[in-house]
Amino acid sequence: DSIYAFVIMGQSNAAYNNNVDVTTVNNDPNLSVQPENASYFFGYNQTSPIKYNANHSLLKTAGLFPITDGLQFLIGGYEAPFASIFYEKTGQKCMIINVGWDGQSIEMFQPGNEGYAYATDAVNMAISQATGMGYDVKYGGILWSQGEANRFDSVNDYEKWFYNVWDGVKKWGFDALLISQTRSGQGGNASIAQEDLAQKINGVYMATQVSNTFTIENGLMQTDNMHYTQAGRIIIAGDWANFYVDNLYVPQSQSNPLLQKI
Questions:
Q1: Residue 40 pLDDT
Q2: Which is nearest to 66 in space by CA: 86, 32, 37, 97?
C-alpha cells in the first residue's frame, strides 16, 4: 500500500493543539471529522532534545500512531481534519509529521539551525518507520503555518530565509509547499512576503488565505487573538487538503507530471 507523507511546519499555530474532541467541535456537524483508521500522525518528542508541542510531549515513544488513537483524537489539531478530507477525496492513506515549534521565527527552520535538524530527524524517522511497515511512501507536501514571529522583519529578509528553508525541505524529497497565509494583522511583512514567494517559486503555493476572515467573535480565533481555535484549524486543514488534491494530487494510475506553477 501507498501512504502520502505531509509535514506541518511553522510556529505555534502549527504546533499547538486544542483540548477538544475533533468529532464534536462547537457541536457543529459541518466542523466535525471522522478520520480513517488508516491515516497516521508521527509523534516524536520524548526522544528529542526539543520539547515544544503539547500533542507530542504526551507521547512516551516516537512512532506512527493512528489518528483515531484516543490521545490524538481528543486533542485535535490540523492532523485529523486534513487526513479525513484527504482520504475522502482520494481513498489514500496519509501520515502527518508535525514539526511545528512554538514561538519560533523562520530562521530556526533554515538548514544548520536547531529547528531544521529536529525536523530532519523526525521526517527521516517517520518515513523509515512507514517503509518498515510495508508502505510505499509518496511525498505529498509541506504545510506551512508561520509568520507572526517575523512580522517586523523586512519582506526581503523573510524571503531570503524562506528560500533557505525551501532548499532544506527539498533535500527531504518534497517538491511542494502549501502556505497558510499568516493573518495580515499578525503577520505584517511576513504576510506580504508569503504572497510574493507563492508567485516566485515553482512548487510553493498560496493554498489558503482564509485566516484573514478569522475573529474572536466568529469563534475562529482564541481570546488572545493570536492562535486559532480548533474550528479555525479544521477550516485551514480543509483548505490545505482540498488545494493539494484539486491541484497537485495525481492518481497512481496516471503518470506524474512536473509540478507547474498554478
A1: 72
A2: 37
C-alpha cell at 254: 496516471
CA dist., res. 13 & res. 149, Å (int): 11
Q: What is the pTM of this model?
A: 0.86
Find out whether 42 and 95 touch, Cβ atoms under 8 Å: yes
Distance CA 28, CA 5 (A): 29
Residue closest to 107 by CA, chosen among 228, 209, 190: 190
Measured from the Cβ of residue 172, the count of other Cβ atoms closer than 10 Å reads 16
pLDDT digits (tens, 9 = 90+) for 229-248: 888 988 999 999 999 999 99
Residue 206 neighbours by CB distance under 10 Å: 17
Residue in the structure block whose three cell numbers are 509541506: 142
Helix, strand, or coil (residue 113): coil
**What backbone torsions phi and psi does residue 232 show, to the nearest 5 degrees?**
-65, -40
Q: Take residue 129 and report the three cell numbers written for it.
A: 518507520
Buried b (16+ CB within 10 A) or exposed e, 210-234: bbeebeeeebbbbeeeebbbbbbbb
Residue 143 has phi, psi (to 5 degrees) of: -105, 105
Q: H helices within the chain, ranges in order?
A: 12-15, 54-57, 70-75, 79-90, 114-132, 155-172, 184-187, 189-200, 230-247
pLDDT at 28 over 70: no
Percent of the chain with pLDDT over 70: 73
Q: What are the pLDDT digits (tens) for 32-91?
A: 555 555 577 766 543 333 333 434 433 334 566 666 554 444 455 788 788 888 888 998
User: Apex CA 67: angle with CA 72 and CA 102, to 5°?
Assistant: 50
Q: How many CA atoms lie within 13 A of 244 on its CB side?
A: 29
